[in-house]
Design goal:
mainly alpha, 86% helix
Length: 126
């Protein structure tokens, strides 16, 4: 996951170095990355706290967490675009680029940990 950020921000740094993008675009990319990083930490926190709980609790934490995270992201995006002087198009592009990469990594993480989830659920007698 960190490799994703390194690659994206290395590309942003190269584009800025060659004067292809402005400082507003770099700032937009930083905000987009920070917002996605917060979202990723919330997802990880919810997942770790739901493992070992009952099936209903696990689903509530993860699916309910997705809804809460979406609302958080939509409000944050609206506030960032409205109140900050950044390149709005660069922000949206970088945000969604990082978001979809991290979302696929999040799903892969859950699939890899499927055995842990199943074992914890079996211990609880479900």
């Amino acid at each position: 996951m960190i490799l994703t950020f390194v690659i994206v921000y290395l590309a942003v740094a190269v584009l800025y170095f060659f004067k292809i993008i402005s400082s507003y675009s770099v700032e937009a990319a930083l905000y987009a990355g920070l917002l996605n990083l917060i979202n990723l930490f919330i997802a990880y926190f919810l997942f770790k706290n739901s493992v070992g709980k009952s099936g209903n609790t696990f689903v509530a934490f993860n699916l309910g967490g997705i809804g809460i995270r979406m609302i958080f992201l939509l409000i944050s995006i609206a506030l960032i675009i409205k109140f900050l002087k950044i390149d709005k198009y660069a922000f949206i592009l970088v945000f969604f680029l990082i978001y979809f990469i991290l979302l696929s990594l999040e799903v892969a993480y859950i699939i890899v940990n499927k055995k842990v989830i199943k074992n914890q659920t079996d211990k609880n007698g479900l």
